[in-house]
Amino acid sequence: xxxxxWHKRWANQEIGFHEGTVNQFLRDHWSLMVSNNDDGVLVPLxxxxxxxxxxxxxxHPVIGVELxxxxxxxxxxxxxxxxxxxxxxxxxxxxxDSLELWCGDFFQLVPDDLKNVRLVYDRAALIALxxxxxxxxxEHLTAILPDGSHILLITLDYNSEEMQGPPxxxxxxxxxxxxxEDYDVEQLLKQDMARDNPFAKRRGLxxxxxxxxxxxxxx
Length: 219
Prior knowledge:
alpha/beta; Rossmann fold; 9 strands; 27% helix; globular
């Protein structure tokens, strides 16, 4: 997917993927990820997710990576918090204490950028990417993460004939195929989304959908 696709979505406020509240799966399962609240957290393709404030409030330094400058500005404006902006290449960095939003292309991250990161929260990155890009995303994420890092991954699976992504459907089998070589893959939850769920109804998912939560530990 081209950058222009996402820039247009944010410019037109076509952001149905934005939850507006802290994700319940994050609340329920984050304690299984953490041994030290000082560990840095990477949130790829973060948008303006409230989850980042929640993680930061626990004590984690947070780096969110987001392509859209609109999303980065809205994140702080809607929280009535100020950020200092540090222009640069390949990222413009918005900083508020130990929470940073890096505005730019996720694929420009290098290992040195994440030397203090041990945790990743992926609710909306993998499922935002079409099948052709997901392997590239996982390969790049694996290349830049320190060994021993852990990922909390949330996925969505549905009948692709009933809805066109994003968010795209990602099966449990695909998660294991993508991550299984370099990570210990543990499924923490698999839960059916009711057909009368507002998201399912809005997107025409007559057969419903399944949400899964994984803990991935880099070998």
